[in-house]
Amino acid sequence: MYMLGFSPSLNSAFADIIHSDIARYILITIYTVAFIGGTIGVIAMSFLLVKMNTLSVTTAAIINLVVLHSLLLLTVPFRLYYYISQKWIFGLAFCKAVSAMMHIHMYLTFLFYIITLVIRWLIFFQWKDKVEFYRKLHAVAASATVWIATLVIMLPLFSVRYGKSGEYGNTTCFTFQQELKKESVKALNYVIIAAVAAITCVLLGLQVFIILKVVKKLPGSLGSHQEFWAQIKSLMFISVIIICFLPYHLFRVYYIQHMKEKQLGNYNDICLSITAISCLDLLSFVVSGNRFFKQKIIMLRDKLACC
């Protein structure tokens, strides 16, 4: 018996429409949360950066994160407009640029996280008392090098080469799946996925080892020790990677192998949109660094211990 008396192909078409609409609502929700929370985080962290040591490499990494998140957040309204109106009116070239920004944001954020974690670990193991630039000009030069390599090399290459394997309409956007039919593109994706997964496992393993070492060393209540909170903050960087970046990469392995299944494109878009949630990291850092927040966490832990 056919559902509602229609043919299987028509039932399948209805199912595709329903799934597409659900996916669209999910995408709108995720990008809205990322835009609002990310904007608040960028503004809050910008005020805190005024008081920080500008020669610190960690501060330089945070400044770059603020800039990076800001650039992504500028493109989010265009994505929201597209998912709400279901029509792209800004041209294919700008669609490629917006699409490229999502990937650039993800991998540069991953890079700045690694830099920040490595510096924290160098200080923890007392290999370095502090990691700073000698002059502000050096900090600017280091940041400029990363951005020049990204904007001058990666972005134009992405815009020129991406979207050349198929025909894409001017009223649709973010549907460049046909590029994955190329064996070279598949191979590159597999290499990136393996690298991200391996680096994430190493980062998590090292951070867990450090936290266990800190727990054994510190006496009394852990919540009263600044060193413990410093390691928890480092764990937050890794948590963002695991929650926001890893699902997209792990799902992509399956997606590349089963591209013919139409609904997988929606799931891929949702996994990619979750990477934008990483923009909330600045807000979480500001909140976690607040003394009032720490006191509430300690009080909650003590109440749970008494129960």
UniProtKB/TrEMBL annotation:
Record localization: Cell membrane
UniProt keyword terms in alphabetical order: Cell membrane, G-protein coupled receptor, Glycoprotein, Membrane, Receptor, Transducer, Transmembrane, Transmembrane helix
InterPro entries: GP183-like (IPR047160), GPCR_Rhodpsn (IPR000276), GPCR_Rhodpsn_7TM (IPR017452)
Boundaries of every G-protein coupled receptors family 1 profile domain copy: 38-254
Pfam families according to UniProt: 7tm_1
GO cellular component, one term: plasma membrane
Membrane topology category: Multi-pass membrane protein
Transmembrane segments: 25-50, 62-84, 104-125, 137-158, 190-212, 232-250, 270-293
Nucleus keyword on record: no
MF terms (GO), sorted A to Z: G protein-coupled receptor activity; oxysterol binding
Keyword Transmembrane: yes
Function field: Orphan receptor.
Protein name: Probable G-protein coupled receptor 141
